[in-house]
TrEMBL record:
Pfam families from the UniProt entry: DHDPS
Keywords for this protein: Amino-acid biosynthesis, Cytoplasm, Diaminopimelate biosynthesis, Lyase, Lysine biosynthesis, Schiff base
Protein name, UniProt field: 4-hydroxy-tetrahydrodipicolinate synthase
InterPro entries listed in its UniProt record: Aldolase_TIM, DapA, DapA-like, Schiff_base-form_aldolases_AS
Family according to the record: Belongs to the DapA family.
Organism: Mesonia phycicola
EC number: 4.3.3.7
Annotated site, Part of a proton relay during catalysis, chain positions: 46, 109
Residues bound to pyruvate: 47, 206
Active-site residues (renumbered): 135, 164
Entries under PANTHER family matching the protein: 4-HYDROXY-2-OXOGLUTARATE ALDOLASE, MITOCHONDRIAL, DIHYDRODIPICOLINATE SYNTHASE
């Protein structure tokens, strides 16, 4: 579990202008993370636009990242859904070579009860050959995993090692930290409140903005884990304006605008998402220039 202390990055999937997967840009992006202090990588999450990728493309993305990473950083694979049996089958049948854990989102759209969420993850846990990290993101799933439910899953499912907590509620995060076992990882899924969560006892972050500013964000998280509060907040306030900006028109349009400015990828996304507006791209470009 120590593999997942610190800063993880939810990788985008770069596209060419014909919207095909840009393999070379993806390799460059992985190298950029490896060279700038990121602790682990998350593959095929929401930020990776997995919902618009074909099965063949998902395998291509996995293969490319595993090859380019070459064992340097731990890798986490996103496998989730709102059909419990389908998720269980996926974690059993997926090629997991090169991966260290699974990130599994709470069932979306169907709005299960807390008991339904518990039973879902109990089934996923029993089916998974790898450690499982839960993912709570009520803004996308329309249901919230309560701290009591997370604590129950943590107690009953030995291979559930943590949660990416993205409710944006620091009080709820603190309750999760308090109610779960000491070795259970409560990981921020909200870039803006990462530092307060870390200082409250959280394990770090799975970040979007760190993809564009890996060295700075990883340093902030490490300062937080080491309780160097003043140094950590200095970096937080330096980066904070960009966090608001990258989510202004949806994710991953904003962060792709940043990686385009950094000349790592293009900014193309797939419908129903659209690229960041010229106004937003200009603001992000200015921010990058000011913080080189």
């Amino acid at each position: 579990m120590k593999k997942f202390l610190g800063t993880g990055v939810a990788l985008i999937t770069p596209f060419k202008d014909d919207r095909s997967v840009d393999v070379e840009a993806l390799r460059s992006l992985v190298r950029f993370q490896k060279e700038n202090g990121i602790n682990y990588l998350v593959v095929l999450g929401t930020t990776g636009e997995y919902a618009t990728l074909t099965n063949e493309e998902k395998q291509l993305v996995k293969k490319t990242i595993v090859e380019e990473n070459n064992g340097a950083l731990p890798l986490v694979l996103g496998i989730g859904g709102n059909n419990t049996q389908a998720v269980a089958d996926a974690v059993q049948n997926e090629n997991l070579e090169g991966f260290d854990a699974i990130l599994s989102v709470s069932p979306y759209y169907v709005k299960p009860t807390q008991e339904g969420i518990y039973q879902h993850f109990k089934k996923v846990s029993q089916s998974s050959p790898l450690p499982v990290i839960l993912y709570n993101v009520p803004g996308r799933t329309s249901s919230n995993m309560l701290p009591e439910t997370v604590a129950r899953i943590a107690k009953d499912c030995d291979n559930v090692i943590g949660i990416k907590e993205a409710a944006g509620d620091i009080v709820q995060a603190m309750k999760m930290i308090d109610q779960t076992p000491d070795d259970f990882l409560v990981i921020s899924g909200d870039d803006m409140i990462t530092l307060p969560m870390v200082l409250a006892g959280g394990a770090g972050v799975i970040s979007v903005i760190a993809q564009g500013f890996p060295k700075e964000f990883a340093q902030m998280v490490q300062h937080g884990l080491s309780r160097n509060v003043d140094e950590a907040y200095k970096i937080h306030y330096q980066i904070a304006p960009s966090i608001d900006l990258i989510f202004e028109e949806g994710n991953p349009a904003g962060i792709k605008s940043v990686t385009k400015k950094l000349e790592i990828t293009q900014d193309f996304v797939r419908l129903p998402l659209i690229e960041a507006s010229k106004e937003l791209s200009s603001k992000l470009s200015e921010f990058v220039d000011q913080n080189k």
